[in-house]
Amino acid sequence: MVTQSAQDQDRLFAALANATRREVLRLLRDQGPQPVQALADHFDMRRPSLSEHLKVLREAGLVSEERQGRQRVYRLEAAPLAEVQDWLHPYERFWREKLRGLGDLLDRMPDNET
Question: Would you call 81 exposed, middle or buried from its count of C-beta atoms within 10 A (0-12, 13-18, 19+)?
């Protein structure tokens, strides 16, 4: 049985798996909240396709949407990314320890002077 938290995590990682969605997040991070059309101007796709990407990001909790008149303005919601960082941390620690071990091994090897 898949728990709600596991489903949320799956939705989050699935949202991040797509390059277009990662670029949308980067744009919102670097340039702040933007209306859909301003975001769409950065991509070579029809607006309905971008809207589908925004829907996935919204359902993953990575963006929020606010109506301002006739426009929908999207804002980055970075809090879920802390969950990704928490998930990745043990792997980072794993590789750091492996590389430290490799460094120690290389330090113990005699220098080959030719």
Answer: middle
Contact 102, 31 (CB under 8 A): no
Largest CA distance in the chain: 75
Residue 7 structure tokens:
């489903």
Task: Encode the chain (114 residues) as per-residue pLDDT tens digits.
Answer: 445 588 888 999 999 999 999 999 999 999 999 999 999 999 998 888 999 999 999 999 999 999 999 999 999 999 998 888 888 888 787 788 878 877 777 888 888 765
Structure tokens at 46: 């029809």
The sign of the dihedral angle between the CA atoms of 81, 83, 77, 64 is positive
Is 17 strand, coil or helix?
coil
Alpha helices (H) in the chain, listed in sequence order:
4-16, 19-31, 36-40, 47-59, 79-108
23 CB-contact burial (10 Å; exposed 0-12 / middle 13-18 / buried 19+): middle
Q: Which amino acid is at 95?
A: W
